[in-house]
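[audit] Reproducing an earlier prediction to check determinism. Same input, same settings, fresh worker. If the tokens differ from the archived copy the diff job will pick it up downstream; this log only records the rerun itself.
[audit] input (533 residues):
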Amino acid sequence: KQMKRNVSFESYIGLPFHVEPRNIVGDVQERVSAEAAALSSRVHYYGRLTASSDRLLVPPDHVIPSPEDIYVYSPLGTAFKVQGGDSTAKNPSIVTIFAIWNTMMGTSILSMPWGIKQAGFTLGIIIIVLMGLLTLYCCYRVLKSTKSIPHVDTSDWEFPDVCKYYFGGFGKWSSLVFSLVSLIGAMVVYWVLMSNFLFNTGKFIYSDHHVSDQRVSLWSLSLVICPYPNLDPDGDSSTLQYYAGENSTGPVFDRWWSKTNTIPFYLIVLLLPLLNFRSASFFARFTFLGTLSVVYLIFLVTYKAIRLGFHLDFHWFDSSTFFVPEFRSLFPQLSGVLTLAFFIHNCIITLMKNNKHQENNVRDLSLAYLLVGLTYLYVGVLIFAVFPSPPLSKECIEPNFLDNFPSSDVLVFVARACLLFQMTSVYPLLGYLVRVQLMGQLFGDHYPGFLHVFILNILVVGAGVLMARFYPNIGSIIRYSGALCGLALVFVLPSLIHLTSLNRRGELRWPSAVFHGFLVLLGVANLFGQFFM
């Protein structure tokens, strides 16, 4: 009977079964829920008496609800009836692969052409391939980390729990801090990009209604601009101005609609109230826009390549007026961007739990990384190759490649507008994740009070405003935050956990120690390279 109780409790623990009838999805009659409420309270009481790994205290049979009273909450705030069997929906491999692809795809894709320019065309392609393989291996080590822990049920563990098991409180807090670095870094990049997209969107709309000499035409679809046309003082300035020139919108409009002086502050009115919501479930409904935005960017890049043609000239080590060398010493800037671009290590365990065929986890993870790497290569290589040199220098490629197209470009306007709406909906989700991780650890409550949450949101928003005002370079922000969080969560912690596990089992050999030690040194060099190269 005791064994029966354990199995029964394992089946139902953590599944909320008392829900208000109005929140139940489906044709379910309202019924008296007082008894269910009492049962729910008792189960939660037993759940708090002991840890999930301790089986000394288990609820008696009469506390465990019957199967017809079991419901599971969805992220959208509704409840679904459990029909029996495993309560967690499992996804086929194709869904898992594209879920990883969609999660990994972010703002880094806008900086790929700039990163290739910094590293050099040939070296850039090599680095993208190598960083993809290295981050894939480290992600594989994270995925396998829970399986190497003996005699402990790790079915509900995440990577911070693994870090705590091996390194105590230091491991748990270090993984938390560096995870927050990646989230806050992403929020800062979002603020800079939202300021950029809102500025260009407003400029397009204003010019469309107030400027008579419009260039919103098929010709403007082939126009590429250099925001800094005086990079080459010996070049043909008239040609550069021809490509870089845009219609003036007037001094009054420019004073009140400035990319760095006013727009970052306008966003506070829109986004700061959204960050104070208790739940971010409403914004989760718009996450599909990320997939649509990436698909549209791929279409946009393909169309631009057809319109502009290829402009390549190989100079292996020496630069020229319009081209950069194939191998450049600035390559760590690309590796820093790629560390964040391939970063999914802090949530890969959760994503893979929902895979229907667990034996295919390694294959599906590898295919997802292959898809991500091909997407980055396609966008980065194509934009670099079609950038019109001459008359413009490849050095003109911006950290956000959309800045190399004028505000009057209709297709780019659509891309900016879509990305602006998508980032506006995702930004509160990132803020919610920061709040849950930080407040949950400090106060044991995801929403300890309005004042606590408001102060946290002011600090996060303030960081975004300051960067958008004084340093709106998303390439540098991405590479610094990527190299910093990647040092711990990509290179150091997965390698140390694997070495510690092998050592405890007496299976550590010198080739493994040398290789994983090299990964740790690589992460350190990647971080220091952002400051010295």
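[audit] rerun output stored. Observation attached for the diff report: The chain has 18 helices and two strands.
[audit] end
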